[in-house]
Write a structure and sequence with these properties.
There is one protein chain. By secondary structure, the chain is an alpha+beta fold. The protein has a single domain, classed as Electron Transport, Fmn-binding Protein, Chain A (Pnp Oxidase, Chain A). 26% of the residues lie in helices and 38% in strands. Strand 8 and strand 9 form a beta hairpin.
Length: 194
């Protein structure tokens, strides 16, 4: 049991490292929703980790189809892979969308203007265009004004994934190791075949 606790603690630590460094293997991950009974996958950036509430967070444009997916079915998946350690984390959880509250305002105010630009573009994510146009505001970065900032914030949201399970897999030529962690009243783990 001690070994499984240490493995989970190590992965929480690596997830936290993923927030700090764009070069870290856990900085980006594959996020999966369900749309029309089919999986929808995309890469998102890990923005925060809360071990106490067993949750992870990323940012999104509230106009995005993934937000509509979550509103219809909040069962989601997240996939992380660390190629240097040959470890895969498959997370299943429940997603919720946070917008226009004290937490999102604080996060928005802490963001660099370069990061805010993608929320100021005129087109909703996945909308059809007649030809390619950069989905950026009309004002250049150095001319972003208070109205632009307010518009961007109105489209900004934070997605929280409350983790229900983590399927941990360590690939090894002498035999893969695999653990299933269930997050209930307390975290339970069991070794499973790979």
């Amino acid at each position: 049991m001690q070994e499984t606790i240490e493995i989970l603690q190590k992965e929480w630590s690596f997830l936290n490292d993923g927030i700090q460094s764009a070069g870290h293997h856990y900085h980006s991950f594959i996020f999966s929703t369900i749309r029309n009974n089919a999986p929808e996958l995309r890469t998102v950036i890990l923005r925060s980790v809360d071990e106490n509430s067993s949750s992870i967070h990323f940012h999104s444009d509230i106009r995005s189809k993934k937000i509509v997916d979550i509103e219809k079915n909040n069962s989601v998946g997240a996939l992380f892979y660390d190629s240097s350690r040959r470890i895969q984390l498959r997370i299943q959880g429940l997603a919720s969308v946070e917008s226009n509250n004290d937490k999102t305002k604080k996060v928005w105010q802490s963001m660099r203007n370069e990061s805010k630009l993608c929320y100021m573009g005129p087109f909703a994510p996945s909308s059809t265009m007649k030809s390619f146009l950069p989905n950026l505001p009309h004002n250049p970065l150095n001319k972003i004004n208070q109205n632009d900032d307010k518009l961007g914030y109105s489209r900004f949201c934070r997605v929280k994934i409350v983790i229900k399970t983590i399927d941990w897999l360590q690939l090894h030529h002498k035999g893969h190791k695999r653990l299933l962690f269930k997050f209930e009243d307390k975290v339970r783990s069991k070794w499973i075949a790979s």
